[in-house]
Amino acid sequence: MNVLFIGYGSIAAKHKQALDNLYPDAICYALRSHAGSAPVAGVVNIYGWEELAEKVDFAIVSTPTFRHTEYVKILTEKGIPVFLEKPIASVLDDLDILDQQISQWKLPTYVACNLRFLPVLQFLHAYISDERPRINEVLVYAGSYLPDWRPKIDFRENYSARADMGGGVHLDLFHELDYISWLFGLPSRSISIKTSASSLEISAVDFASFSWVYNGFTATILLNYFRRKAKRTIDIVFEDDTWIVDLMNNRIIAESGKVVFDQPDFSIKDTYTKQMAYFTDCISKNVTPLLNTFGNSLKILKICLQEDEIKR
Hints:
The chain is α/β, with parallel strands linked by helices. It contains nine helices and 15 strands.
């Protein structure tokens, strides 16, 4: 198996580890923007497309968000399947046209939202799909402290903190929007607030709230960069019970104290391996469409980037 990395940072390293777990003999290339890039064990640095000596089975795009579509366009023209780090872009310019081109070429694309492979969310997805419980309210909270994300560098210089590089908590924590749409579908109406007014003093959005309206209930999604002690939860108020879904501990506890689901030994790193196994299995068997295509994720991104309100 031959794999091309476009952009090689901390996220790419996680995808590389997943590949190593599954395909230890895979040959990995990294397309570098300039000579002198630090060598990475098990990765061949190249500086131009002409240096690819072998046919590439797929490419992993994990550049800063604002450069994603630049490379997806090139890969589409070359007919190379795309494993794209979320979100697909930071602006909507020309994305519908690119989506049409991908569809015309019948190119396999997958947007990497690894939390779909977290056991607690897979349990919740199966429960909601099978039991169809009456839901009155959903509250999603994801908050953490941006300076702790990459403690060895000045957080204000990283793309997450910079609006001009496609940063922002609504894009970094796109996972929450993705898995809520996976659990419940797209909302009929969405209202959002995005601000960058916290003590972090960054140009990118550091707080975002979304109210997603469904038939019978509303899902409220709160995201921030400034919570010191990280928290990632979903409160689901059913007709006769309330569940607190703790994503960081892979657990669901009912309001009564009953443990509904608990798998504490599962590592978040394993979601990357499960995700990569799913993707490589699909492209080897020509399975389409994939779980989360470019077109699927574009629908969510349009809601994510809305100015204020969108109705369907």
